[in-house]
Structures are given as structure tokens and as C-alpha cells.
User: Which sequence fits this backbone?
């Protein structure tokens, strides 16, 4: 059973109804909020265990707060007593403040908006949910006799289940708010604690004092007379005076150098300014702008400019689909007036139905994207995946999981080709249709969003 199965066993409909009554919120909204908080807390703990300090803190928190499965086993009874319920909430919120510092308010705000409940209720539910999540983890530590490293590894074993379990409507917000992009992309891993050197054991039974690491002492000698101290002060004063005189001469020389080079600097600045101005004029003449969409109009001149820019950056344009993508993206990147955040469709990249296998014709556009990223070292992108052809939860693969796996496979190709993984984010958005949304068709595509030009 996955951890999320264990959470569902604890948070039964009866328990959720009592939680809703305690918070004075509608049962449906409370259930939605608690489910969202379970995934959010779990995602936050995953991120925490990517550092050695985080691994130690999580394990210590479980031990110190007595999370060992007792709470989750008796939650139904605890919720009958308002005093006990309040104690669970308080302890849980204190644990979140330690494990996810400075995130409590932002998480509560996200859940409040997501589930449609009061912000105060979201904070209260965060403490209660955190207590349940930590208690289930504590029970696993106790039953499996895990140490801190084992706990971190077991959390990461649930990464795929976590990705599949998060509701599609919450997934993008959760990833951004908690900052788990690298975890979702499969790049991050649990930290391994370094072995701590232990002091030598004393087998004699007598008290011992720690042995200092060195016999050299930096304490002042009590036998030193005052004349020695005066001499040290005089030497220090001479050194300060020498440094001051040297600094004065350096300042004078730099001042003269600045005066001599001012004229040449002005000339260079003027040349750069003239060049920038002529480039702006040329661009405005060569790329007409559609006044309705405020984007470059699809004219012959625009295509010519984009094609020449593509050639200059070493981007080949083989095939009409690849050429259209490269033309549009290159034109946008070459125009500093265009803001970041534009999205371009990788229409040349397709996958076999219900699989992670790209069609043979897709590799060309992937190669073009690699070439473009190498030609522009400051460019950062986000790959956005959509899928509508997953076999379904019964087969263990939802549309959200499939969309993520597809964009992540593209990211791994880019990273394998030498692109720094920090420059490429990958996120799966499922079908792109939110729960209850009408009139929008499920999507199956890959987009490239420009994060930094």
C-alpha cells in the first residue's frame, strides 16, 4: 500500500465529516481542502529531504513530537474532544513552521482559494492534516525500523504515486508554491547524511577531558612585559601608515587614468548607442507589427528576417513544421521589446498513443530546440505537456502522469545533450481541462514557454 492509501484509510468520510463540523465549513469543501493539504504537506516534506539538514529535522520532529501511529489510529476518538483536536492542530502547525519555514501562510492562502474556505480554516486544517501525515510517517518508521536516511528514501519511493494522486486543478499551483519543480522532473534525490566522527570511547571508567586538536596556544603569554605590547602597537601603526600612503598614490594614478580614458569611453558609448539605434530602426522597418494583436505580422519581410536570424544562430529549418516553430520563436527572441512569457507549440513533436514513445518525425524538432538553447545560453524555458490518451487510473497511468512523463523525457534529452537542467523546467498539465469546466476540449500537445530570454 502507498502512503496515500494509508492517508485515505485514516481520513475516512466519517472523520472528514467531524473535521468539517469542527471547522464550521461545508463537508465537500473541507474534504477538498484536506485532500489538497495532504498532497501539499507531502510535497513539502519531499523537498525538505533533499538536504541533509532537512532529513535530520524531519526524523527528529517525528521522534520529539511522539508521532508513532497513535494519532492516526485514534483520530476518530480525538475529534470528539475539542480540546484534544485543538492540541493536534497546534502541534501540527508548530511542526510545519519548523519543517517548512515561512510557508504556512502561503500554503493556507493557496488551499483557501482552491477549496473555497476561510483562510483561518485553512490554517487550522493545515495543522490537523500535518499531524496526520507526520503520524502516518512515524508509524512507518516504527514498523519498518527506519533511520533518517531510510525515511527519506521511502518518501521518494512514493514520488510517482504522489504525482498521480495530486488533483489536476491543484498540481500547477502546488508545484510552484512549494517549489518542487526538480522533484516532479525527477532530478532531485534524497540527501544522504554524512557520517559523524565519534569521540574515542573511554574504557578505563575514569573521567577524561577532551584532547585539544593542537598543542599550539594562541593565548597571550602572562610573562610578557608591557614593553612588548608597546612595540607591537608601534609596528601596527607603521603598517597602517604605509598602507595609507600606498592607497593615496593608487588613488591618484587611477584618477589620472580615468581622466585620460574618459574621452575614449565616451566615443565607444556613442558608437554603441548609434549601433543600437540603427538596429532598432532596421528592425522596425523589417518587421511590421499587427496593431490588433501587437505581434509581428506574418509578412514576407518578417519571414526573411526570422530566417536570416535563424541562420545566424546556427538553427536549421528543415521541414515546414520545424521552420514555422523556429521562425516564430527566433523572431520573438530577437525582439527585446517583446516581454517574456510567450508560449510556442512544439507541433512537430508527437507521441504514439498511450505511450512515451515519440514518433520518428519528432526528433528533428527536438534537435532544433537543443541547437537553439546552445546558441542562447541565457534562454530558460518551461516544457508544458498535455495528454488525453492515457489508459486510465485502472492501468496505473492518468493523463496528468502521462503528460508529465512525456515532457520529462524531452527534458532528459535536452540535459543529455549538454543543456543545464536548471534552464529547462518540465510540467505535466493533464488534459488542460479543470474539474467542472465546460466547453473546453481535452488537449494532447507539448508547449514551450519562454521563462527568460
Assistant:
Amino acid at each position: 500500500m502507498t502512503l496515500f492509501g494509508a492517508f485515505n484509510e485514516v481520513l475516512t468520510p466519517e472523520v472528514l465529516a467531524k473535521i468539517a463540523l469542527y471547522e464550521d465549513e461545508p463537508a465537500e469543501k473541507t474534504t477538498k481542502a484536506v485532500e489538497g493539504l495532504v498532497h501539499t504537506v507531502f510535497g513539502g516534506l519531499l523537498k525538505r529531504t533533499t538536504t541533509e539538514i532537512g532529513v535530520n529535522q524531519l526524523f527528529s520532529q517525528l521522534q520529539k513530537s511522539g508521532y508513532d501511529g497513535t494519532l492516526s489510529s485514534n483520530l476518530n476518538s480525538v475529534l470528539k474532544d475539542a480540546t484534544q483536536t485543538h492540541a493536534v492542530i497546534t502541534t501540527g502547525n508548530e511542526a510545519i513552521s519548523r519543517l517548512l519555514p515561512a510557508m504556512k501562510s502561503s500554503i493556507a492562502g493557496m488551499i483557501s482559494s482552491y477549496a473555497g474556505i476561510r483562510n483561518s480554516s485553512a490554517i487550522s486544517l493545515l495543522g490537523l492534516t500535518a499531524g496526520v501525515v507526520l503520524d502516518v510517517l512515524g508509524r512507518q518508521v516504527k514498523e519498518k525500523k527506519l533511520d533518517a536516511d531510510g525515511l527519506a528514501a521511502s518518501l521518494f519511493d512514493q514520488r510517482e504515486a504522489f504525482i498521480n494522486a495530486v488533483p489536476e486543478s491543484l498540481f500547477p499551483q502546488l508545484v510552484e508554491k512549494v517549489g518542487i519543480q526538480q522533484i516532479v522532473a525527477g532530478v532531485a534525490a534524497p540527501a544522504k547524511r554524512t557520517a559523524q566522527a565519534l569521540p574515542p570511547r573511554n574504557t578505563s571508567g575514569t573521567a577524561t577531558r577532551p584532547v585539544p586538536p593542537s598543542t599550539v596556544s594562541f593565548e597571550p603569554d602572562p610573562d610578557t612585559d608591557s614593553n612588548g605590547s608597546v612595540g607591537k602597537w608601534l609596528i601596527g601603526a607603521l603598517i597602517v601608515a604605509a598602507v595609507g600612503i600606498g592607497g593615496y598614490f593608487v588613488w591618484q594614478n587611477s584618477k589620472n587614468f580615468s581622466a585620460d580614458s574618459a574621452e575614449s569611453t565616451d566615443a565607444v558609448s556613442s558608437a554603441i548607442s548609434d549601433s543600437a539605434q540603427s538596429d532598432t530602426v532596421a528592425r522596425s522597418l523589417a518587421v511590421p507589427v499587427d496593431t490588433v494583436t501587437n505581434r509581428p505580422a506574418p509578412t514576407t519581410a518578417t519571414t526573411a528576417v526570422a530566417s536570416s536570424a535563424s541562420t545566424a544562430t546556427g538553427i536549421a529549418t528543415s521541414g515546414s513544421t520545424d521552420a514555422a516553430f523556429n521562425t516564430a520563436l527566433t523572431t520573438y527572441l530577437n525582439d527585446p521589446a517583446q516581454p517574456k512569457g510567450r508560449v510556442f507549440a512544439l507541433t512537430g513533436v508527437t507521441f504514439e498513443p498511450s505511450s512515451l514513445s515519440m514518433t520518428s518525425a519528432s526528433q528533428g524538432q527536438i534537435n532544433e530546440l537543443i541547437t537553439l538553447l546552445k546558441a542562447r545560453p541565457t534562454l530558460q524555458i518551461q516544457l508544458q505537456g498535455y495528454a488525453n490518451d492515457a489508459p486510465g487510473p485502472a492501468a496505473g497511468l492518468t493523463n496528468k502522469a502521462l503528460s508529465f512523463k512525456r515532457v520529462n523525457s524531452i527534458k532528459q534529452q535536452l540535459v543529455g545533450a549538454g543543456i543545464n537542467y536548471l534552464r529547462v523546467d518540465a510540467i505535466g498539465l493533464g488534459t488542460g481541462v479543470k474539474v467542472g469546466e465546460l466547453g473546453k476540449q481535452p488537449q494532447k500537445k507539448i508547449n514551450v514557454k519562454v521563462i527568460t530570454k
Remarks:
- The longest strand covers residues 445-452.
- Residues 3-184 form one domain.
- Confidence is low (pLDDT under 50) at residues 196-201, 203-230, 255-318.
- The CA atoms of residues 34 and 129 lie 7 Å apart.
